[in-house]
Amino acid sequence: MDQAIQDREKQFYDEEWKKIKVREIRGRVVIPEIPTLAGKRVLICSCGTGIEAVQAALEGADVYAFDISETAVHNARAMAQHNNVQMQVAVMDFHQLTYPDNFFDIVYGSAILHHIDCDRVGRHIHRVLKPNGIAYFLENSDRNPLLRSVRRLAFGKPGGYQRQKFLFFRRNGTTDEYPLTEEEVSTLRNIFHGNLRRFNHTFEFFYLLNSMLIKKRSVGRKLRAFDRFVVRIFPFLRSYSFQQEIWMQKPASKP
């Protein structure tokens, strides 16, 4: 990743994560085919709020976490102390992970893959996972052809400057981020020797109108309900949701 882009991302999230308040954490990190994180060595990538790292630790995982943002690392440490759990947290660039080979049972992240170079980072994820280890990421998606066309027209193409506003529409995020593309998913699939699956447990489409234009909770709830209604009638649309889950497994041995 270009250093200027990395610096902009870091600056943006150093400020963004200052909004997080330390509090008691509940809930758990849910990963398909992993009934519990207890006893697992888990890496939380781009720990941000610190919430997911604490959730994993509360379940009994041996937690490591990192973020490029010092604010995010502070959040994770403060959340851990407030919730009486232990974890190892570091400021680190995802493109230059320093963890040992074959070290983690699980690598987890939320809304981070579309920020990074998937070729470089994918190889690090594969390297630090133990054989049969699982990498699981909650992500957005560029798969929907309608959303893809509108977004590229309104805000910009992958790899270029992303406009924050177009007519009445305003997007969230940094000026460099773009939803995870099919090319990036293919890159990750190749690194994991084909052991990649995608899940779409929700359908997010009309709800985006609220986040980009209307910005009212009451309207957002109605649009989310309409998304659920639409996908019940047309279940095949689920794979075109703006939200997706990426599940990868390191082979027990290289093919």
Explain what you see.
With 255 residues, the protein is of the alpha/beta class. It has eight helices and nine strands. It has a seven-stranded mixed β-sheet, sandwiched between helices. A two-stranded antiparallel ribbon has the order 6-7. Strand 1 (41-45), helix 2 and strand 2 form a beta-alpha-beta unit. Helix 4 (118-128) packs parallel to helix 6 (182-191) and helix 7 packs antiparallel against helix 8. The longest helix has 17 residues, at 217-233. The radius of gyration is 18 Å and the shape is globular. It starts with a helix and ends in a 6-residue tail after the last strand. The model has no long low-confidence stretch (mean pLDDT 93).
Q: Structural class per helix/strand content?
A: alpha/beta
Listing every helix as H and every strand as E from the N terminus to the C terminus, the arrangement reads HEHEHEEHEHEEHEHHE
Poorly predicted regions: none
**Which of globular, elongated, flat, extended, rod-shaped describes the shape?**
globular
Could you give a short description of this structure?
With 255 residues, this protein is of the alpha/beta class. The protein has helices at 3-16, 51-58, 70-82, 118-128, 145-154, 182-191, 208-214, 217-233, and strands spanning 41-45, 62-67, 88-91, 104-110, 129-140, 165-166, 169-170, 196-199, 243-249.
